Amino acid sequence: MIPSPFEYHAPTSLADAISLLGRFGDEAKLLAGGHSLLPMMKLRFAAPAHLIDLARIPDLRGIAQVGDQIHIGAMATENDLLRSALLAEKVPLLVEGARSIADPQVRYRGTVGGDISHGDPGNDHPALMLALGASFVLRGPGGARTVSAADFFHGLYDTELQPGEVMTRIEVPIPPAGTGWAYEKLKRKIGDFATAAAAVLLKMDGARVANASITLTNLAATPLKAVAAEAALAGRVLDESALAEAARLAMEICDPVADQRGDADYKRAMAGEMTRRALQKAHSRASA
Fold it and tell me: Where are the domains of the chain?
């Protein structure tokens, strides 16, 4: 189908983009990579009268280390993540996650900020950012504010991003040296959303788990943090018993919706299996 008529705007500064949002209000939509919005417009599920393209705003790009954080511009593409030597060294979980997203054509245009702002639990970055303890810088007419990933996702397509605000930057704490990482994603085919996926960061203290961060993709209306599973692993040897307990506790928090990827019981079981695999891979990459 063909989208409804709209007026196209291409601001070259963040101030201009925010001004346009304020002028047009609910009639305006922001365009980042476009992979979520444009299909909805073609199906007439979304019909904005004004489309504000963020692609020409240089302040929304770039990947840099600032103190003990990595700052990622919201308009950085998945391909930017894949090509970043800084991320490969400091936050390899994001590189591994980006590699599992869609296909090369999508990764060349799809943006990190767009993926997060859309609030789709099937997108990969929400759970990755939740695992990393990231925060998002949001700017509107009243100035900037920073919201943690833990507080950003409210429900299906429902986030903390308020009318008139633009996500400008993602701030990611650099994991401690020796931290293992993994993103295990089950999908039917290349380019598909996850049937179930698990992101893990793992820090060891000798043979025992010092701390773990475990998050899940596409298994509820928001990304999930498996807090009980994390707590159960603390101080334990990562043996078969510990893996089984972590997988069981991860499965307990899932509330998946049946669809063409499988029924709820299957998805829940795969959440446990992806958690197990991610923990094992992260363990193989961790050092005390």
Answer: 7-52, 60-171, 186-285
Residue closest to 157 by CA, chosen among 9, 14, 25, 37: 37
Q: How many other β-carbons are positioned within 10 Å of the β-carbon of residue 158?
A: 11
Is 186-285 in CATH node 3.90.1150.10?
no
CATH number for the domain running over 7-52: 3.30.43.10
Per the CB < 8 A criterion, the answer to whether 189 and 268 are in contact is no
Tokens, residue 73: 């511009």
The residues near 89 (Cβ < 8 Å, ≥ 6 apart) are none
How do residues 161-220 score in pLDDT, each as one tens digit?
Answer: 999 999 999 999 999 999 999 999 999 987 789 999 999 999 999 999 999 999 999 999
CA distance 117 to 126: 9
Cα–Cα distance measured from residue 65 to residue 88, given in angstroms and rounded to the nearest whole number: 12
User: Mapping DSSP to helix (H, G, I), strand (E, B) and coil, where does residue 287 land?
Assistant: coil
Q: Which DSSP string corresponds to 42-109? A: HTTS---SEEEE-TT-GGG--EEEETTEEEEETT-BHHHHHH-HHHHHH-HHHHHHHHTSS-HHHHHH
Altogether, the residues listed in the chain come to a count of 288
Going by the DSSP 8-state scheme, the letter that residue 20 receives in this structure is H
Express each pLDDT in 44-79 by its tens digit. 878 889 999 999 999 999 999 999 999 999 999 999
